[in-house]
Design a protein that fits this description.
Layout: H1 16-21, H2 27-30, E1 36-42, E2 48-54, H3 56-59, E3 64-69, E4 105-106, E5 112-118, H4 121-129, E6 132-137, H5 144-147, E7 163-170, H6 173-179, H7 184-188, E8 194-202, E9 214-220, E10 223-228, H8 233-244, E11 251-255, H9 271-280, E12 286-289, H10 292-297, E13 301-302, E14 305-313, E15 319-331, H11 339-351, E16 358-367, E17 373-374, H12 381-399, H13 403-410, H14 433-444, H15 446-452, E18 460-472, E19 482-489, E20 495-499, H16 508-520, E21 527-529, E22 533-534, H17 549-575, E23 584-586, E24 589-591, E25 597-600, H18 601-610, E26 619-625, E27 631-643, E28 648-659, H19 666-685, E29 716-721, H20 744-756, E30 762-763, H21 767-776
Parallel strand pairs: 1-12, 8-30, 10-11, 13-17, 15-16, 20-21, 28-29
Antiparallel strand pairs: 1-5, 2-4, 2-6, 3-5, 7-16, 8-14, 9-10, 9-12, 11-22, 14-15, 18-27, 19-20, 19-26, 23-24, 24-25, 27-28
Length: 780
Amino acid sequence: MEKYREVGRQVKRVDARDKVTGRAMFTDDLCPKPCLVAKILHSTIGNGRVVSMDVTEAKAVPGVVAVFTCFDVPDTKFPVAGHPWYAASAAQKRDVADRKLLDDRVRIYGDNIAAVVAEDEVAANRALRKIKVEYEEYPVTYDPREAMQGTNPPVQEDKPDNIVGHTLAVTPEDKLKAMGYSSVEDAVRDPKYHHFAFHAFTGEQSQAHIEVCVSYCYEENGKLTCVSSTQIPHICRRIIGQALDIPWGSVRVIKPYIGGGFGTKQDIHFEPLNAWLCHQVGGRCVKLELSREECFWDTSGRQPKDFEVEASVGDDMRLHARSIKAWSNTGGYIHHGHALVLNSVNTFRWLYHTQEDAIRCEAWTVHTNGPHTGAMRAYGVPEGIWAAECLMGDIAHDMGWDGVEFRMKNAITPGYVDEFSPSNTISYRTDGLRACVERGKQLIGWDEKRQEYAHQDGPIRHGVGVAFLVYKTAVAPFALETSNCQITLNQDGTFQLQMGATEIGQGADTVFCQMAAEAIGVRTEDIHIVSTQDTDVAPYDPGAYASRQTFVSGTACKDAGQKMRRRILELAARLYPDFQGELDLRDHAVWDAAGNKVVDLPDLALEAYYNLHKTDQISTRGQATVHQNAIVTGCTFCDVTVDMPLAQVTVNKIVNVQDNGRLMNPKLVEQQMHGGMAQSIGFALSEELLVDPATGRVRNATLLDYKVPTAMDVPELIAENVETQDPMGPYGNKAVGETPIISPAPAIRDAILNATGVKFYEMPMTPQRLFEGFKREGLI
């Protein structure tokens, strides 16, 4: 593996001191005080239409500047999902415009129907309570399979059957005939093999980020400026322009530090409305900040998904045939739509397979009157891996096989190419999975604990479980992957690094500094980066999603750094022609081939800026358009204690070992893995937005009722990596930001199965569901 000086160092985060001392400025910190405050009136029905609205009393409240209703806004629809833009009009269809600033057509409980702008929050809230609304109410449908039969009226007018997307990937007919079958169903139910089938469910998990969604807007010099806590500032600029039907260049978006997003800030929820309100009040500064409750039910959590899974397996531990059907509930609006469940069924297909395996993957995404859903960490993959690992866990348990051995017999192998992917560009090139599994077994004590926990009885039992993961880095080949970076040589020989990619708390800025330093040949400490993105000056990048930034944006960063290195050496050769041979940049100086110092870098930089004959203020632009990807694999092992009478699971230890390619900064990777593991504990055992199916209303939209794991719930976490050198990453790296959340939840499920023999298919496995399962099996 190639040796690097800066890449791979455990460099301290470049933003650590400011964040620890409180100097880091977030959106609300930067907002001018005082400013106007905007608040939204939400519908109190889950499906219907606003017939009329009386705002007379609201306008009379002291301090109210203006009140706007769904009947006042432009009749313009726009998309909200953070998808890249496509110049070809046919490709733009994937970025569906189905939202209005305010809408008289109510599709979900809490839909946005009016807005108040006031001098302060108190006046705004008082005015909201005085708005009188008359509705025409329709029946609420929350079940996606029921909604597919059609509703009157449909949730979205252009989809009479409420189906957003439907896809089918199935083993070709000639291959099935060669196996002696007419269909995958025949193969799955072949009596010569062992048959397994179940129905699984994953609920709507909320991102529960610390900083709420907030923005403020003002007009200056004929330009509308929006400062927002967003993961996607350049896409935000475009969507504001679309929503207001104004040139995109007349919009400026600024992204300061962000207090967490995990996908919900990959949607443009309220920035367009805030921008429009700002314009309506003459360009005065308007702040629109969501309450914690609004963040739960009026932004976008993880799509709930139903799965029907069938499979057959031989006595040789080889999978023979598999089928998965998935129904994804996107709620009243498309947001990220069908892409999420596609990730679910695709990863189900990729993780386990054999050459003899016949596969059928079918998926639907459906509109209901449920709350918003969209991107959340790992973008549909945890749900697909849940279904895959429920299957593998069941088979190993029922057949009496070692769960690790069985999985390894069928796990993805190097050279795998997805036959259903566009241009066959989804392939598995570098394999650390086998080493990950061996290390994970050692760290958890797999063989010893399996033996120790065998033949338990009594109300309190112990179990050990395992789950594997697979994850595709970035969004190529399904969507555009591009990035730009700019590096400037400063007068003192340090460098200014400017990225369009966004730091959202994950440590991207630190890694970009390391990558740039490696490419130039200087220390990371010589790179200065500004975490704020300003679309007027920051180079274009779609933003933070799909674990793409180190992989795609890092490629642009490396490109700019290599160009900077060449420019510096070319300048030195021009200014100092007496030195012979190829010049080199190291130790903050330029050296000749004989090892003589040509010039210190600070002196060369001063000469570049202030040479009387010809100044050469060096700035380079790096660009990347990436068409390939890299597949991450790994595994999680966990140890649990199950108190069946109390229906309580205590997670004692989690071991997560992954192949993320080359690690850019091992300490940051460990931090990412710890955070993902903690989120996955919540997904496994407690986190779910509870929706009343009769009204569509979220029942637990507070941090008191939505059960996020606390420090008391997080056990010993062990995160390790098996490093490989992936040929597609700029420095051999793959994804890491989202992968740690994928496999801990099914590993916990597998440990509960090992401890109790009870199979659970609904996630989260709440005390109520655990109690019902233990009671059903006669254990309590």
